[in-house]
Design a protein that fits this description.
seven-stranded mixed sheet, alpha/beta, 35% helix, Rossmann fold
């Protein structure tokens, strides 16, 4: 099968990914091999696989507290599998409603020898009774107004949201103001990371759940 052009590994990857770089190189190879075929990534995404997806997720992984994490709508494994690879001190529950993607996540975790991964093939709103974690993340799922009510019930009191967001995050925060109050969110803020490592900016909406 002919693959689209893939992005070369950026020079800053070793600095950002550290000891997990070999595992993430393998993950990148697998995404190139099966990603399009399984509908995990679009063909154009391979041209920015490292910068936009792997390093973007790795920057988040550096900020996750030790403990337990749920990744809502894990998809191809961004950021969940990357966090698991980089942070053996974090047990990652990958919540993915689409069966094909959930199967990919389970099989890829085994291929990468990640023992700190649990895959849940359900919607986030259906696992509120069974999933309880220290932190929740999500990437490219929905706007904060919708996402916060989905994620907060999964977080232990005093736990954190670390939601990956785009350039319009400030607009999303304003639009979600009522949901943030209703959910008992405290200290909401946007953290920027990436340029200090010589790569694209990653925005993380971070807040504590009461």
């Amino acid at each position: 099968m002919k693959h689209s052009a893939r992005e070369a590994e950026p020079a800053c990857a070793e600095l950002i990914c550290g000891d997990s770089l070999e595992t993430l190189r393998l993950f990148a190879d697998h995404i190139v091999e099966w990603g399009e075929e399984l509908g995990l990534v679009g063909p154009r995404e391979l041209e920015r696989l490292w910068t936009r997806h792997i390093l973007n997720s790795a920057l988040l992984a550096r900020k996750v507290p030790a403990g337990t994490l749920a990744d809502v709508g894990s998809g191809a494994g961004f950021p969940g599998l990357v966090v698991a690879a980089m942070r053996p001190d974090v047990h990652c529950t990958l919540i993915e409603p689409l069966g094909r993607r959930a199967t990919w996540l389970e099989e890829e975790a085994q291929r990468l020898d990640l023992t700190n991964v649990t895959v849940v093939n359900e919607r986030a709103e259906d696992v509120r009774e069974s999933v309880s974690v220290d932190s929740v993340t999500a990437r490219a799922v929905s706007a904060l107004k919708t996402l916060v009510p989905l994620c907060v019930p999964l977080v232990n009191p005093g736990g954190q949201l670390l939601l990956m967001k785009g350039q319009r995050v400030d607009d999303e925060i304003r639009a979600a103001s009522k949901e943030l109050v209703r959910a008992g969110i405290s200290d909401p803020r946007v953290e920027l990371t990436g340029p200090e490592f010589g790569t694209e900016e990653t925005r993380i909406f971070r807040a504590t759940v009461a």
